[in-house]
Amino acid sequence: MSADAMRGLGPQVLALDEGAEADRICAWMVDTVAAQRRRGVIIAISGGVDSGVCAALAARAFGPKKVYGLLLPERDSSGGSESRGRAVAEHLGLPYEVVDITPALVGLGCYAQRDEAIRAVFPQYAEDWRCKIAIATGVPGGIHFFNLIVQSPDGAQQQARLPLKQYLQIVAATNHKQRVRKAIEYYHADRLNYAVIGTPNRLEYDQGFFVKNGDGAADLKPIAHLYKTQVYALARHLRLPDEVCNAQPTTDTYSLAQGQDEFYFSLPYAQMDLALWAHNHGVPAAELAEALDLTEAQAQAVYTDIATKRRTTAPLHAAPALVEPVLQHDER
User: Fold this and answer.
1) In 3D, which of 263, 292, 273, 279 has the Cα closest to residue 233?
2) 89-133 pLDDT, tens per residue?
3) Do the domain assignments include residue 88?
4) Boundary (domain end) residue, out of 121, 149, 168
5) Region label for 47, one of left (φ > 0), alpha (ψ between -120 and 50) or beta (otherwise)
6) 66 with 99, same domain?
7) Residues 58/65, Cβ–Cβ less than 8 Å
8) 37's torsion region: left (phi>0), alpha (psi -120 to 50) or beta?
9) How far apart are CA 262 and CA 278, in angstroms?
């Protein structure tokens, strides 16, 4: 990037040579999967831009026939997610299958456990109601908490601050969804001797926006170094369907529509990308505030939130703790 392009904090700092980056990632994927002695790759295609880009890169790296796609909806999933996932797989010419994980989740108690926690706050909540949780802040720069939002069949919504016990139970129950999906991915990986692709972008990977042993589990993560803005740029370069290139980030976890910024991040992804980049490059909060039209106090609060999420989610990245190193025979 030229010195002129680097002047000032703005979208230009995230500019990417998409062609060169796609080539670099594809070469890395081939080398990585070969080193793991796998014959191809598995990818769960959610209908979002991250999995779409990973699928397109994999198809380019290995050829479509060596990429097995999985669409893994459940009863709370958006119908649009599945249709976009099918569009990606068919656009790329991937073999794929659709597995509805609802019966498995029912058997595990996912919905019952979640609904039990919801009824502790809204006793009238029933199976035909819809729900989500949304992040909130009591005072500027203060501690985040979550609101529970429910909607009755007639469309009326109610919300209330979610107590910690019920918040933890709802999150624990919904985490079954990511873990069941990953179990299915690894079944097919074992069956085909394939490697499993993880699809987090840099914002999600850095800030711990994944479930340990769920969507956080993978054999390779090809876009974990890319900001979400850069992933969208790659999607357009790779000529993914327009509906994928224009899809807004969602959790697709709760029955009510929910954006990622509403659930987890302090800002919409484009602003959050810039804030993370600025934090990583030591840009003063005052400069971030000017770039994002925030007060300096608000910008500093975003920086604090980034650091807090890194600290509190560090265990998600950690390998299991051992009493002492366990050496392999060839290391002795």
Assistant:
1) 273
2) 999 999 999 999 999 999 999 999 999 999 999 999 999 999 999
3) yes
4) 168
5) left
6) yes
7) no
8) left
9) 22
Say if 307 falls within a structural domain.
yes
Same domain (yes/no): 179, 246 = yes
Question: Residues in the chain with pLDDT < 70?
Answer: 1-7, 137-143, 259-263, 329-332
Clarify whether residues 139 and 280 are in a common domain: no
Burial class from Cβ neighbours inside 10 Å (0-12, 13-18, 19+) for residue 102 reads middle
Structure tokens at 37: 């002695």
The rounded distance, in Å, linking the Cα atoms of 124 and 332 is 63
Give CA–CA dist 49/266, Å, rounded.
Answer: 20
- Say how far apart CA 32 and CA 51 lie, in whole Å: 18
Residue 262 confidence (pLDDT): 63
Residue 290 CA to residue 296 CA, distance in Å, equals 8
79 in Cβ contact with 252 (< 8 Å): no
Q: Which domain holds residue 279?
A: 267-313
pLDDT of amino acid 327? 84
| pTM as predicted | 0.92
Residue 47 is given by DSSP the state: S
Distance CA 52, CA 270 (A): 19
- Confirm whether 318 is domain-assigned: no
How many angstroms separate the CA atoms of 211 and 230, rounded? Answer: 23
- Read off the DSSP letter of residue 153: T
Q: What is the number of domains present in the chain?
A: 3
Q: What is the distance in angstroms between the CA of the first residue and the CA of the last residue of the chain?
A: 47
Give yes or no: residues 148 and 236 share one domain: no
Same domain, 101 and 114: no
Do the beta carbons of residue 26 and residue 61 sit within 8 Å? yes
Out of 153, 168, 183, a domain closes at 168
Number of H helices, E strands in the chain: 15, 7
Instruction: Give how far the C-alpha of residue 22 lies from the chain's centroid of Cα atoms, to the nearest Å.
Output: 20
* Residue closest to 89 by CA, chosen among 70, 108, 73, 72: 70
Torsion region of 42: left, alpha or beta (phi above 0 gives left; psi -120 to 50 gives alpha): beta
Query: How long a stretch of residues is the chain?
Result: 332
Asked if the structure places residue 205 within a domain, the reply is: yes
Q: Are 36 and 219 in contact (CB under 8 A)?
A: yes
